[in-house]
Amino acid sequence: MKIPKELINGFIIFLGIGAFFLVINGLGLAGNYLLRFFNITFIFYGTLRTLRYNLREGNNSLPSNAASAILTSFSGVILSVIGLIIYISIQGGDAYIESLSRNFLFGGTPSVIRYAFSLLLEGFVSAGLVSFLLILYWETKYKSDKHGAKK
Question: Which residue spans traverse the membrane (predicted)?
Answer without folding.
Answer: 7-24, 30-48, 69-92, 112-138
